[in-house]
Specification:
Length: 381
């Protein structure tokens, strides 16, 4: 297994997220956009994830090869993103971000499949590779947070361009397993419709990621209003991901199919608690630290379980589209709807109520998981 090459990919990919999530909204605010406009622009970024991964997964299925497509997508993402230097109007940035993320969102699902195929029967060790993504996020959020205390918010623009270029370079060194995935008969939609427990699981993913939208879009702006510096806020983002790494390191010990349902429910319940903490105690540093500790569960544990389940639900060439479908429904549709709604909720009701609504949404996901996701997972060949 090409451990270091895949780890390098995850490190840079999530370093990009470590810039986008904490600091893109403050950049947009610095050039005069309102809460609702920021929510709309962030929703566009998420919305492309509903479409792009599925198109690129379809191409990967037809070509029986992922990495050439991954490299093309990375290169086109770099070219498209360069448009941010040409204008700052709402519609121009909307066009640039839609185009850039259409290509960027194509990349991760394909590399996830490649990683899991390299792991083979050791897919429970996925966390040991994925933790490098967490390290990349930490490095980016900490370093850029400190830099933004003494530099303008526009510093994010060249930093993102450099990271995107680096991502393209690292994909040149990743190779596929060479294994031939068996052909799957029938439509993937028909396959999903035959499995109500799979539909319930995807709905849980949608709701959980929708609940993350106020955090991903407005956490930095929210804490800035209460006097926290960019370096402190960056430290909080990084600390949450440090806790996530802890989960990835030990996940292989308990990530077994018989535990999936319990882990899903626990992740949703604890995530709801986290959003209430952030909404109620923005000035209380011990409570913020505790809330960030729970990122280990709200993202780290949930994502690990979800990836493992998707890898077992979808076999053969359906793996590419299964992973893309997970990203589209959760991070794409859930993230887009959540970002759009949270922007208006922040404007109308304020941050405390917005985070409370997010908590209720993810508790609804816990109820759905309890009622409809099966207790024991059955592998379908």
């Amino acid at each position: 297994m090409p451990y270091w090459r895949l780890s390098g990919f995850y490190f840079i990919y999530f370093a990009i997220l470590g810039v986008l999530l904490p600091y893109w909204s403050p950049y947009l605010a610095s050039i005069g956009f309102s809460y609702s406009q920021i929510g709309d622009l962030m929703a566009i970024i998420m919305a492309t994830k509903m479409v792009a991964p599925n198109i690129w997964a379809w191409l990967a299925d037809r070509s029986h090869s992922s990495m050439p497509l991954v490299r093309v997508a990375c290169l086109l993402a770099v070219i498209a993103y360069a448009g941010v230097f040409l204008g700052t109007s709402f519609w121009w940035l909307a066009l640039v971000m839609m185009t850039f993320t259409f290509f960027w969102h194509a990349v991760l699902p394909q590399v996830e499949v490649i990683t899991l195929n390299h792991l083979g029967e050791d897919s429970h060790r996925y966390g040991r590779v994925r933790l490098w993504g967490s390290l990349g996020f930490i490095a980016a959020s900490l370093l850029l947070g400190a830099a933004l205390d003494v530099n303008p918010a526009s510093l994010v623009l060249p930093v993102l361009l450099s990271l995107l270029a680096a991502l393209f370079i690292v994909t040149l060194f990743i190779r596929e397993t060479g294994k031939h995935l068996p052909e799957e008969r029938g439509s993937i939609v028909a396959y999903i419709r035959q499995k109500p427990e799979l539909i319930a699981f995807l709905l849980v993913c949608f709701l959980l990621q929708a609940s993350h939208a106020p955090y991903y879009t407005f956490f930095t702006l929210y804490l800035t209003e209460f006097g926290h510096s960019k370096s402190v806020i960056g430290g909080l983002w990084a600390f949450g991901v440090v806790c996530e790494i802890g989960v990835f390191l030990i996940m292989h010990r308990f990530l077994k199919p018989r535990h999936f349902r319990v882990l899903l429910i626990a992740s949703c319940v604890i995530t709801g608690m986290r959003w209430f903490m952030i909404g109620q105690f923005p000035e209380n540093m011990p409570m913020l630290i505790l809330a960030q500790t729970l990122h280990a569960v709200s993202f780290g544990l949930f994502h690990g379980v979800a990836v493992a389940m998707i890898h077992r639900y979808f076999t053969g060439h359906h793996q590419h589209r299964g992973m893309a479908l997970y990203g589209s429904i959760s991070f794409g549709a859930g993230g887009a709807l959540g970002s759009f709604a949270s922007g208006y909720s922040m404007s109308w009701f304020g941050p405390t109520m917005t985070f409370a609504i997010a908590g209720l949404v993810v508790w609804l996901a816990a109820l759905i998981a309890f009622l409809w996701v099966r207790a024991r997972f059955t592998v379908t060949a």
